[in-house]
Design a protein that fits this description.
Blueprint: H1 13-37, H2 45-69, E1 74-75, E2 85-86, H3 101-108, H4 123-146, H5 154-163, H6 166-192, H7 197-204, E3 210-214, E4 219-224, E5 230-232, H8 235-244
Antiparallel strand pairs: 1-2, 3-4, 4-5
Helix pairs in contact: 1-2, 1-6, 2-4, 4-5, 4-6
Length: 245
């Protein structure tokens, strides 16, 4: 079955920008994190630590902004449509995700040829992406708890005492970095398993033609080649095609 169209409404420009900020911040945080843990460049450690703290603050603020914008900006609930709903709803359970968890797992494990018609985010994507804000906040907290200027602040000192001291806090902060690295690989795979169109849309805001989906009726209604004309399709033909496959 052909893939759904990818429209800009799925990822409005502010979300493209926050995604770029996340990418750049994570890159610098991982690189500087390794340099701090393995200080091969002693003369640059002041710069390295400064960059690490700076991008740690940037990614935390960016996370807060992204969460806030999800209640202000609308986005498409699924691929294949320009209809928009408040963005936060696309992160919550949707009718287009109902009972699809096992089917998505089969698809990602190459046990199923086609993924189910679904919301913008498949079930595994939605679960993993919902964890990221929590991880960012936790990583920011542990980072502030081991940074000299803030480690003695009450809110951070209390957390350090809770985990048993500065060394344990540093270990938690260090190994959380590996959680982010693992997530990056999973994220890249989940986002591109059916093609690079979603990535081109997210990074370069480039639309890609394909099937048109009605999120209210939960059916495919046409095909859009982005020429300005949408070819309407009889939903019964799509069902028959799926049965033939």
């Amino acid at each position: 079955m052909a893939h759904l169209a990818h429209y800009r409404e799925a990822h409005p420009l502010p979300f493209v920008i926050t995604h770029w900020i996340n990418l750049v911040s994570m890159f610098f945080l991982i690189i500087t994190g390794f340099m701090i843990h393995f200080p091969f460049f002693g003369g640059l450690m002041g710069v390295v630590r400064g960059l690490h703290v700076f991008f740690g603050i940037v990614i935390f603020v960016n996370c807060v902004v992204r969460i806030t914008l999800s209640f202000v900006i609308k986005s498409a609930p699924t691929a294949g449509t320009r209809k928009q709903v408040p963005d936060y709803k696309t992160w919550l359970p949707q009718a287009d995700n109902k009972h699809q968890g096992p089917e998505w797992v089969k698809y990602y494990l190459f046990r199923k040829k086609d993924h189910p018609l679904s919301a913008k985010l498949g079930v595994p994507q939605k679960i993993s992406y919902l964890l990221i804000p929590i991880l960012i906040i936790l990583q920011f907290y542990t980072g502030m708890a081991i940074w000299g200027p803030t480690m003695d602040w009450g809110i951070f000192a209390a957390g350090t005492d809770l985990v048993g001291g500065q060394m344990n806090q540093r270990i938690i902060h260090y190994f959380l970095m590996y959680v982010f690295i693992i997530f990056i690989f999973i994220h890249v795979y989940l986002a591109n398993v059916e093609g690079t169109a979603p990535t081109k849309l997210m990074f370069f805001w480039k639309e890609h033609g394909g099937l048109v989906y009605d999120p209210d009726k939960h059916i495919i209604i046409g095909e859009d080649d982005l020429s300005g004309n949408v070819k309407m399709i009889d939903p019964e033909e799509v069902i028959a095609e799926e049965l033939d496959e």
